[in-house]
Amino acid sequence: MWEVFTCCSENPYQGMNNTQVYQYIVGGGRLHKPAVCPERIYVLMLECWQHVSLKVLLLFHLSN
């Protein structure tokens, strides 16, 4: 979804290698909210980007 709201005009994690991206994400880092992205959609993105947790597993279960 992030790419859709940036119209693919930005590269996620630009300037980072795979190890840096992993460390950034594990450390709680997330992509910024694109300017044209509604807040409620960005909140949904943040929820999807959570570490595997009961909440994520529940969402997965509900979608099946």
From TrEMBL:
It comes from the Eukaryota. It is found in: Membrane. Transmembrane segments: none annotated. Its main location: membrane. SUPFAM superfamilies: Protein kinase-like (PK-like). Keywords: ATP-binding, Membrane, Nucleotide-binding, Repeat, Signal, Transmembrane, Transmembrane helix. It is a single-pass type I membrane protein. One of its GO terms (cellular component) is receptor complex. GO terms for molecular function: ATP binding; transmembrane receptor protein tyrosine kinase activity. Pfam families: PK_Tyr_Ser-Thr. GO terms for biological process: cell surface receptor protein tyrosine kinase signaling pathway. InterPro entries: Kinase-like_dom_sf, RTK, Ser-Thr/Tyr_kinase_cat_dom. The keyword Repeat applies. Signal peptide: none annotated. PANTHER family: INSULIN-LIKE RECEPTOR (PTHR24416:SF525), TYROSINE-PROTEIN KINASE RECEPTOR (PTHR24416). This is Uncharacterized protein. It comes from Schistosoma mattheei.
